[in-house]
Each structure stands twice: as structure tokens, then as C-alpha cells.
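Per reviewer request, we include the raw input and output of the structure prediction for the construct analysed in the revised manuscript.
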Amino acid sequence: MMLNCDEFPLVYIRDHDHDVPAPGEPSWPEEMEALLGRNLPFVILFDAPHKHEQEETQEERREKAIWFKRNRARLTALCAGAIVIESNGPTPMPIRLAARAVGKAFGVEFRFVGDDKAAREVATTILEDKVLISG
């Protein structure tokens, strides 16, 4: 997985074609540290997982869970929300419930939308609300 911050404060998460970063390519934790290091609110957007996509290994999930626990306060303060783009159809209910539980644990609301246009509209609203609440 890699972060695309070209449209910051909209941050797209895209899957890698490989598990190990290429030489010179930052690792996922390094990308996340750089993102949080901006110290500005953002919204994460990503495509709903496809059934055929390879799942993370248990070790990868464990490492990410540890990182999220260590960085919970920073993530909660800066990540205004997470949006799942369901361009290939609705996300199955068990995955929706799991995403919402993770979001609740880390103080990040998950929303599910049908396409990128809707995701951008929702992200803009979420960011505006975050600024009003924080400001």
C-alpha cells in the first residue's frame, strides 16, 4: 500500500503491486510519519478491496496495528475521516462493520460512497466540519 498526497488534504491509499517497497521508495510507516508530520487535517480515501486482492499477512497486520496504537492520538487529531470508494459495488456488511469498529477505536469516522466524485464531496464536507470544530 502507498499513500498519494498529490491532492493533499485528500490522501489516496493505493495498493502496491509488490509487498516490499522498491529501492528509494518509502515504507508504509515512513509515508504515514511524513503525512502526520505535516500537522494539518486530512481525509484518507481508498478503493474498497476486491475479492481477488491478496490479503495482508498476519505479520503485516500486526505491524500496522502496533503503528496505529502508537500513533493513535496524532491520527485522531489530524485524520478528519476515511472514505471507502465502492466503485465495484457495495462493501460486504462484515467488512463495513469491521471498518467502523476500527474507525471508532482510532477516532476516525468511515464513510462509504459509490464513486470518486462523491468521495471528494464528502471529504470536503468532513474537512470543513473539522476546521469549524477545531477553529
